[in-house]
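Here is one chain, start to finish.
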Amino acid sequence: MTDVDLATVLAERPYPGRVLVVARTAAGLACSYAATGRSEASRQRRIRLTDDGDLFVEPTVGDAHDPLRHYRAVRGGDRHFVLSNGTQTDPVADRLAEGAPPAVALEDLEYEGDPPIYTPRITTVIDRQDQVWLAAAHRGSAERASSDTIVTRIGALEVGQGALLSTYSGPVAEPVTNRVPVSITVAAASHVDLADQLWDGLDAERRVLVAGFQPHDHLADPHLRNAADQ
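Its structure:
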């Protein structure tokens, strides 16, 4: 099967929810994260670099914390980077720091408590050797409330190749939960280009934030775009 370019994948997903992208650019391995929103509360968010060097999604209006909308999206460690769409970032990073292999660190995660959609919790782990894991914890079935987790270890990526995992893949009115990554092609020279292309590919009415970074620079120079700043 021929890989599909990033813009085409996004065009086919008018409401992707939250999006994780890992790709090899001309400058090296790069990551990008995006969040879109249908509700006003979901759109009232931004992503920022914290004093600890992590990326945090926070409200732009008021200071009320909602764990489904506000969370540490990216956390770096001595051996791994963790990028996710929710509060699982810290427990996964903690397990890795304690020596758990990525596949084990990604176990026992729960989908989000937002019926009737039950949004998957999606997570990326990248180690210092550029090995990549993408995981989705999702509701097992309509009849079974327990969570299933699919972990995909991504093989070596050549320049221009990548993988994308989004929480949804269906129409705006009736989001369909997504569980597995799709192979993509990208024409990006750096993490900045990758983030900008992700931003440009999202529906302008629903895009909320995008972040791009290289997983080996301790987030010294992330590229952040927030709809609230436009």
